[in-house]
């Protein structure tokens, strides 16, 4: 563990800016440490000295008795650099800067933030914040925060659990923690990181992952600048769910103004999280729902779900959501359905979703016997129980049956319990004690099941090898780029650059009597938009087409006319998370169709095939409306070859293969562009 673990293991806490004044932020950390029984040394720091809430106060950390593990700084922004200097001189390893007035306020604040971080790093001090609400380690009662959560009239239970919550937004982080506590969750840690000026939220999450008692990690992020931190977090072995704001352009601007950080391209982040097996939550409820699912140690072996219900309507809704979430509604084995038919009333259903009907209220054994049969089916990876308006006694019977089958089978069991709390006031606690996450609707239970599969599915430990081709020194013309693609093993149309009308006619004859003519002009990428492409040019029309395209001021490329197929785009661009491979449907209509999927490079085995399967228009490749099926294996090889081609290229380039036509046999790159990003 690193020094960051002092955020929750500190044996001494100095509060710089402490005061006894009612309502002041500098009073709260001292009061919370006192109120919740922090067993370590509490050191209020105030230039006036004296006592604060009964503790000896010191004019500075340099005059306080050491060693000091953790400092909580809550003074005005202009006084923070001096406080940081004192912390360095006192040998403190970690400090939380709660103060605002830094990068979130503009250029002047950003300069002050940079100066503060530079001073800290020079002295070996790690900083959390600034502009944050602090950190809490429930196990050791380290209350380094001014969050109003802990000033509520009712004392918040500090019984530690295994969930770690890390949030750039302080108020949102502790607000989410309060909602989790209300629903019965027991967080072990709540850490807020504000502007992420030095230590990032991802870094704290990775540190928490090394805690043996941590069962799952939940994070709220406003920027994700470091792919290596994401990889490290994903490889920690702990399930992770992240809520990342700034999906829209407007949200991205708001995130930037909140923390002074740049937003990450949202689709790139989606691709990265999907690859790394990290759940992306859509809202706070979804984040906490994932946390409920993470508490149990049981993990699914696959995405196949069996639904068992006492309400046909709930079962149907759950089945719809299973498909929508990318899980599989397993059909159950013949022998399973036969055995269920012997148990379930004739007006129920032995098919998945399995409806045992309300008859279970008069014969609780129906539930036990049905669950035992379902859990024994090896095609079932997870079970979701759906119930409506069950009262306490019925809930107890259901919980006993569900807990028994979960323990015996080792398979995850999730519960959708739709009904008011007054029907069964103790139901949530009863289910939680049994290790059964419960949700108020089928949709939320299924989303949680999908999250559980996302963090459980095996990930390839190897990546595909590169080709060792060096980065092009300059932007390549289409003919130059196609020559490079061909040398890498990609298929391009037969043709060549011509210098005269007669040569153009000769090439048309060579490629079968009909060809495609293109103007080759450096910097002209979207040739179709300006009429720089002629399709279906015959031998008789070759001279006129050559003359027309020569007028653009460059060379003319003449190529074979490739047969019908499915048009796609394959592109690579560099992002702040690294190079990204994108596959999209539509050729020139890619933007209009907006059907695309991405992966960070390098690819792992199986990634390319998975990308093809993620296209909404995948049915076109399968042979829609009587057309011949496209050669998907050749498309997969094309994607893998493109990834291998650029594996060693330096950042700052864009490679645009558009369209790529997938034929019934083979895949050809019809057009290609290479662009090097200009310096800002």
Core attributes:
single chain, 680 residues, alpha/beta, Rossmann fold, Dna Ligase, domain 1, six-stranded parallel β-sheet, flat
Describe this entry's structure for a reader.
The protein is α/β, with parallel strands linked by helices and 680 residues long. The strands form six sheets. It has a seven-stranded mixed beta sheet with strand order 9-8-11-10-12-13-14, with helices on both faces. Strands 15, 16, 17, 18, 19 and 20 form a six-stranded parallel beta sheet that branches. It has 23 helices and 30 strands. The two termini are 40 Å apart. The relative contact order is 0.07. A hairpin with a 2-residue loop joins β3 and β4. The protein has four domains: 289 residues, 3-Layer(aba) Sandwich (Rossmann fold), CATH 3.40.50; 159 residues, 3-Layer(aba) Sandwich (Rossmann fold), CATH 3.40.50.261; 67 residues, ATP-grasp fold, A domain (Dna Ligase, domain 1, 2-Layer Sandwich), CATH 3.30.1490; 111 residues, ATP-grasp fold, B domain (D-amino Acid Aminotransferase, Chain A, domain 1, 2-Layer Sandwich).
- Looking at the structure, what is the overall shape? flat
Kindly state the number of beta strands.
30
Q: What is the third-level CATH name, the topology of the largest domain?
A: Rossmann fold
In CATH terms, what is the architecture of the largest domain?
Answer: 3-Layer(aba) Sandwich
The computed structural class is: alpha/beta
CATH level-4 homologous superfamily of the largest domain: NAD(P)-binding Rossmann-like Domain
Beta-strand percentage range? 15-25%
Total helices: the number is 23
Mean pLDDT: 90
Low-pLDDT sequence parts: 251-264
Strand order in the largest sheet: 9-8-11-10-12-13-14
What is the CATH level 1 assignment of the largest domain? Answer: Alpha Beta
Cα separation of the termini: 40 Å
Tell me the number of structural domains: 4
Query: Main sheet?
Result: 7 strands, mixed
Tell me the Rg in angstroms: 31 Å
- Assign a percent range to the helix content: 25-40%
């Amino acid at each position: 563990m690193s020094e960051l673990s002092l955020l929750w293991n500190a044996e001494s806490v100095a509060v710089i800016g402490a005061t006894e004044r009612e309502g002041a932020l500098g009073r709260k950390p001292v009061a919370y440490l006192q109120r919740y029984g922090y067993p370590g040394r509490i050191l209020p720091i105030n230039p006036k000295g004296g006592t604060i809430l009964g503790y000896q106060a010191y004019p500075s950390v340099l005059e306080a008795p050491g060693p000091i593990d953790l400092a909580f700084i809550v003074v005005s922004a202009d006084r923070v650099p001096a406080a940081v200097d004192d912390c360095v001189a006192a040998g403190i390893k970690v400090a939380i800067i709660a103060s605002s007035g830094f990068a979130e306020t503009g250029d002047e604040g950003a300069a002050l933030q940079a100066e503060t971080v530079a001073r800290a790093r020079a002295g070996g001090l790690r900083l959390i914040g600034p502009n944050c609400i602090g950190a809490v380690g429930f196990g050791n009662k380290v209350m380094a925060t001014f969050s109003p959560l802990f000033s509520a009239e009712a004392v918040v239970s500090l019984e530690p659990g295994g969930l770690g919550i890390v949030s750039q937004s302080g108020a949102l982080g502790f607000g989410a923690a309060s909602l989790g506590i209300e629903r019965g969750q027991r967080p072990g840690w709540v850490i807020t990181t504000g502007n992420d000026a030095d230590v990032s939220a991802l870094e704290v999450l990775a540190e928490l992952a090394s805690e043996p008692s941590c069962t799952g990690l939940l994070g709220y992020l406003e920027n994700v600048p470091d792919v290596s931190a994401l990889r490290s977090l994903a490889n920690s072995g702990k399930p992770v769910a992240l809520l990342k704001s700034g999906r829209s352009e407007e949200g991205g601007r708001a995130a930037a103004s909140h923390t002074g950080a740049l937003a990450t391209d949202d689709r790139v982040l989606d691709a990265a999280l999907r690859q790394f097996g990290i759940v992306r939550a859509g809202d706070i409820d979804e984040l906490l729902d994932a946390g409920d699912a993470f508490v149990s140690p049981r993990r699914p072996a696959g995405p196949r779900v069996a639904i068992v219900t006492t309400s046909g309507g709930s079962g149907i809704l759950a089945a719809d959501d299973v498909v929508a979430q990318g899980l599989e509604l397993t059909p159950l084995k013949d022998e399973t359905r036969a055995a269920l038919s012997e148990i379930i009333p004739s007006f129920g259903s032995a098919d998945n979703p399995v409806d045992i009907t309300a008859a279970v209220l008069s014969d609780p054994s129906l539930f036990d016997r049905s669950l035992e049969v379902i859990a024994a089916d090896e095609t079932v990876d997870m079970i979701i129980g759906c119930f409506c308006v069950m009262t306490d006694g019925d809930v107890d019977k259901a919980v006993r049956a569900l807990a028994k089958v979960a323990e015996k089978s080792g398979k995850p069991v999730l519960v959708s319990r739709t009904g008011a709390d007054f029907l069964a006031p103790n139901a949530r606690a009863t289910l939680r004690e049994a290790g059964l996450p419960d949700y108020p609707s089928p949709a939320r239970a299924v989303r949680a099941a999908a999250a559980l599969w996302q963090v459980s599915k095996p990930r390839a430990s190897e990546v595909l090898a590169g080709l060792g081709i060096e980065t092009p020194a300059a932007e390549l013309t289409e003919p130059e780029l196609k020559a490079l693609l061909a040398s890498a093993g990609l298929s391009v149309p037969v043709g060549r650059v011509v210098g005269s009308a007669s040569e153009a006619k000769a090439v048309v004859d060579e490629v079968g009597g009909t060809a495609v003519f293109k103007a080759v002009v450096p910097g002209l990428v979207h040739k179709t938009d300006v009429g720089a492409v002629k399709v279906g040019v015959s031998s008789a029309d070759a001279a006129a087409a050559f003359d027309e395209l020569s007028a653009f001021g460059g060379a003319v490329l003449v190529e074979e006319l490739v047969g019908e197929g499915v048009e796609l785009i394959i592109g690579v661009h560099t992002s702040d998370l690294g190079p990204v491979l994108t596959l999209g449907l539509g050729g020139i209509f890619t933007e209009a169709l907006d059907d695309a999927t991405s992966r960070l490079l390098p690819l792992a085995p199986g990634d390319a095939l998975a990308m093809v399967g993620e296209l909404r228009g995948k049915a076109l490749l399968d042979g829609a409306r009587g057309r011949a099926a496209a050669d998907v294996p050749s498309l997969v090889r094309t994607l893998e070859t493109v990834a291998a081609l650029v594996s060693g290229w330096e950042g700052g380039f864009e490679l645009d293969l558009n369209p790529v036509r997938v034929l019934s046999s083979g895949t050809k790159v019809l057009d290609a562009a290479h662009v090097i990003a200009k310096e800002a």
